[in-house]
Design goal:
The chain has 197 residues and is α/β, with parallel strands linked by helices. It has helices at residues 13-22, 50-57, 59-65, 76-79, 181-196, and strands at 2-6, 26-30, 41-44, 71-74, 84-85, 98-102, 111-116, 118-119, 134-139, 141-145, 151-156, 160-167, 170-173.
């Protein structure tokens, strides 16, 4: 299982790389999208700002690279799936319709810490994961999908936060599965298992 982790200056690469390797993947850290078919799966890790990340991702090149390879987006990596973000001016990847918006001002920002998940739809990540499982969040923005059917789990933080989204080969988590204990390990294993099919 050849998994590419795209280093777009977002940091936090060690944790996700370690989690993937622990689940049995051969991990390569790359600094730019590769050629189609070069990897069995792609991971977009999750700390940083929207515009710098989108410059490094190069939307057309990334979509071509991801043809036929499942993509896991984590936090900022998930937010990049959408068309735009209030955090920046550049376009997102546009593989899911909708936008990314700032968390409501009445909430403590960033949302940092553990929160339970309410499973609301189907995702390759959630097989064997219990409704109410806990996940670790660190974020100041949230997705606002145009199509609610892409949302597979939510978290309640005084606002309903899309916590897992999936559309086709693209699956994303607003939380950090590599920091989310047993539930996170199960989700990473589920992602890799789906890649093998």
């Amino acid at each position: 299982m050849r998994v590419a982790v795209l280093d777009y200056g977002a940091g936090n690469l060690f944790s996700i790389r370690h989690a993937l390797e622990r689940a049995g993947a051969a991990v390569e850290t790359v600094t730019a999208p590769g050629r189609a078919g070069s990897h069995d799966a792609i991971v977009l890790p999750g700390v940083g700002s929207f515009d710098p990340a989108m410059r490094k991702m190069s939307a057309p090149a990334l979509r071509e690279w991801a043809a036929g390879a499942p993509v896991l987006g984590i936090c900022l990596g998930m937010e990049a799936f959408f068309e735009r973000s209030e955090e920046g001016e550049l376009a997102g990847l546009g593989v899911m319709r909708g936008e990314v918006v700032a968390l409501p001002r009445n909430l403590k920002v960033p949302h940092m810490g553990w929160n339970s998940l309410e499973l609301t739809g189907d995702s390759v990540l959630t097989d064997g994961v219990e409704d109410g499982a806990w996940a670790y969040f660190v974020h100041s923005y949230m997705a606002r999908p145009a199509d609610a059917s892409v949302v597979a789990a939510e978290a309640d933080y005084g606002a309903r936060i899309p916590a897992i989204v999936q559309s086709g080969e693209y699956v994303g988590t607003q939380f950090h599965p590599e920091k989310s204990g047993a539930a996170g390990r199960a989700m990473i294993a589920n992602f890799l298992g789906a890649c093998r099919r």
